[in-house]
Please model this.
Amino acid sequence: MRRRASLVLLAFAVFFAAMAPTLRWYVFPRVVKIPSNQYQVTVLEAKPATLLNYSTFKAEKVDKITIVQTLKGNVEESRRIERDAGRDVVVWDSLSYVAGPDGKMVSKIPERYIFDAHTQDPVNATGEMVDGDPVRRAGIEFKWPFLVEKRDYQYFDAQTRTSAPIHYKGTRTFRGMEVYYFEQTVPWTRVPMPKSMPIKGITPDLLAKTGLTRWYTTRRMFWIDPVTGAPVNGEEIHKEELRNAKALMGQDTITVFAGHVKMREDYVESVGELVKSNRLMVLMVVSYLPWTFTVLALLLLALALWLEARSRRPEPDARPGPALDPVTAPV
Model:
């Protein structure tokens, strides 16, 4: 019975020993992925800020500018692209909507971002765009890959339609979580006019005829959860200008928007809770279960060897021997 039990324990030890690396190196890269139907809204604010008053064409100080960023998974487009790509693909239709202190629209820029559901690498396919302009992304946007590395990444900038390194600046603690801090500075760059303007009748083509050009710079900061690759906080020190404006506005350069953009407090908290729940699921596959299975395999192996050793040990003979006649000494 002991030998049979040791064989059963050995079989379970082999099973758990095989499952540990299988979960980490086979199941994780194939099963853990971004859902194609994800929907998320994030609100950011710049308080105070500088904003162009389009009625007077002068830059004015305002109490607050609000930016609402919406990400919506396009399931139908994901399935269409997956048929040609042969892999799991996520399509995010996003909208960055900027509102002034009165709640009226300042600008809105739609995007379509197509990427691999497992690695977050961009998938260049028909429909990829920024503000209606076709683009071909290189690098990440919005989200880092699972299990973030301590290195620089290529990050796509929607304003310039180009990618540049976003630099790893070290490990920090953000509200009790260990995060990786990344930073990118985009130098002054000429960028296209938004297709949706705050004044009816004014179009990018009309502004281009006046000689106006739009320029932009930003310092971008992200605090990234290293397990899920999701930002738990994001900020930008952002500035936009109209140049060659002297003939139309009386001065050569006019600030369109300037401010330190930060996530609103309630959204920092809700994003943090979402990241913590997703972090647990990822850790179960890449760490907790593999290590549990490894320890369990070692314990079962030790128990199987102990039982096998006991089964081979000779049993002490407990049967009584023949009775001996008493010996009497001679008188």
About this structure: DSSP finds five helices and 13 strands in the chain.
